[in-house]
Write the structure tokens for this entry.
Amino acid sequence: MDIVVFVLQVLAQTLSIYTLVLLVRVLLSWFPNLDWSNPILSSVSAITDPYLNAFRGLIPPVGGLDLSSLVAFVALQLAQSLLGFGATSLAGSGIGY
């Protein structure tokens, strides 16, 4: 298997896993009484908050709702699609090193 295609596929799969972690983070934010000092919740927050904060700086809350997570999901899906398309295109064309 071509190394470039393999790397693109691994990156696309990593983004898929990160999307699931981000979904868990967003869903958990709906429960205000959670103890975020819990090691598991703290780890999820530490992994996802820097990415979400990048979008929170761009999109202000609307009516008390934080819509930045929607844009974050769209950006992840776009990146994942581009990586998958790139891997498929390279594998189909036979371009490699």
About this structure: The chain has a mean pLDDT of 88. Residues 28 and 34 are 8 Å apart (CA to CA).
